Amino acid sequence: QVQPVESGGGSVQAGGSLRLSCAASGYSDSTYCMGWFRQVPGKEREGVAQLYVNSGNTYYADSVKGRFTFSQDSAKNTLYLEMNSLKPEDTAMYYCAAEAAPFRCNKHQYTYWGQGTQVTVSS
Question: 74 pLDDT band (50/70/90 cuts)?
Answer without folding.
Answer: very high
